[in-house]
Design goal:
It contains three helices and two strands, in the order H-E-E-H-H. With 112 residues, the chain is mainly α. The radius of gyration is 28 Å and the shape is elongated.
Length: 112
């Protein structure tokens, strides 16, 4: 058996990586650290856009967002967003209401 010669630092880093992966396998519910760098042409480059940012509202009492979403939440299937669908969501009810009031096309366009 031929052993490859590696320096102490490389073998120590490798050993730490092995221990880290074993710990992760033992506790799979603990999230892993997201990558903040990538290898480009053999060089490790830090990418600031890959850093995790926590966005927290100033007043948590008046915040409508829930702090936790269960992994078992129902998946809502929505149709793809089209320009017609977006227009219908934004202006549909208002145009129908104005049309029922008997307003002309020019008046409806001016009020939008």
């Amino acid at each position: 058996m031929c052993r490859q010669k590696t320096c102490y630092q490389q073998s120590y880093e490798w050993l730490l990586a092995v221990h880290r992966s074993r710990r992760r396998a033992r506790y799979p519910w603990i999230p892993r650290e997201p990558a903040t760098s990538c290898v480009v042409n053999g060089l490790v480059k830090e990418i600031p856009e890959m850093r995790v940012e926590f966005v927290v509202p100033e007043n948590l009492e008046s915040c409508d967002l829930k702090p936790y979403v269960a992994w078992q939440a129902d998946v809502i299937h929505e149709p793809p967003l089209t320009s017609e669908g977006l227009f219908e969501q934004r202006y549909g009810d208002q145009i129908r209401r104005l049309h029922e009031e008997g307003k002309s096309r020019e008046m409806i366009l001016s009020e939008l």
